[in-house]
Amino acid sequence: TALLEVNHVSKQFGNDSKALSDVNFTVNEGEFVSIIGPSGAGKSTLLRCINRMIDATGGEITFDNMNVMNLKKKELKMVRTRIGMIFQHYNLVNRLSVIENTLHGILGKKSTIAGVLGLYNQAEREQAVRILSMLGLGEHIYKRADQLSGGQKQRVGIARALIQNPRMLLCDEPIASLDPNSAKTIMDHLRTISSQMGITVIVNLHQVDVALKYSDKIIGINQGQVVFNGSSKDITKED
Ligand code: ADP
Ligand code: ADP
């Protein structure tokens, strides 16, 4: 069943030409989807419209049967806890440790006094350690974020998203700053998160070969428009 539906979505920044025009696709529960396209195609804009970091100018986005473009502040906060974000530049807090950065992902708590003070309970800490161990970071939980390699930083980014128990992860060029080995580790973890945890994963990529290797579905975007929507098999057949 469809977890995410994007219908006729467009986005225009100011008077510029449209960054997205009439974008349509659906993503099923647990699916691993890659969005590929050249730089400037609109991939990042699309993900930011889905989690409402920015507002689309037209169309409709439905996530878990909710109209994402039409949410009150409370509902929007709730939707954001169900949608984890992974960024190209990790967006960690450098002076905080690995486990503190992970716990920082508990978005709902950030507006409480305990959250502001960085106070987390035992269950939350144990959950953070479990997730970090799963991602191979069990021995680094007290290291400062700025002491980590890029690949390790991105795994903390994934841990920070997972701790909020999301239904879906939106990953914006998660491997674009990584060497091939670290990139493979990250993609393998994302694939496991989709196949074994049942979490829907959407990844922006510009490498077609990586998309072919990992994805259930590939959506090609160019100049703000969907130019391809199919499985890896469909692409290989055309070549
Ligand atoms: P991609 O992620 O595929 O590289 P983006 O979504 O970042 O592409 O960009 C799509 C288009 O939208 C580009 O032309 C870009 O310059 C433009 N764009 C993105 N963000 C903004 C913004 N905040 N203000 C104005 N234009 C933007
Ligand atoms: P708060 O109001 O709790 O401080 P914000 O919505 O202002 O939270 O976002 C704070 C930080 O969280 C920002 O850096 C933003 O990029 C990031 N963020 C926003 N939405 C999400 C999301 N769905 N998942 C993870 N991080 C997010």
Automatic annotation (TrEMBL):
Looking up InterPro entries in the UniProt record yields:
AAA+_ATPase, ABC_transporter-like_ATP-bd, ABC_transporter-like_CS, ABC_transpr_PhnC, MetN_ABC_transporter-like, P-loop_NTPase
Q: Which GO MF terms does the UniProt record name?
A: ABC-type phosphonate transporter activity; ATP binding; ATP hydrolysis activity
Q: Which UniProt keywords apply?
A: ATP-binding, Cell membrane, Membrane, Nucleotide-binding, Phosphonate transport, Translocase, Transport
Q: Name one GO cellular component term.
A: membrane
What are the ABC transporter domain coordinates in residue numbering? 4-239
Classification via SMART domains: AAA (SM00382)
Tell me the superkingdom of the source.
Bacteria
Under CDD domains, the record lists: ABC_PhnC_transporter (cd03256)
Q: Tell me the PROSITE patterns matching this sequence.
A: ABC_TRANSPORTER_1 (PS00211), ABC_TRANSPORTER_2 (PS50893)
State the protein's name.
Answer: Phosphonates import ATP-binding protein PhnC
Q: Which gene encodes it?
A: phnC_1
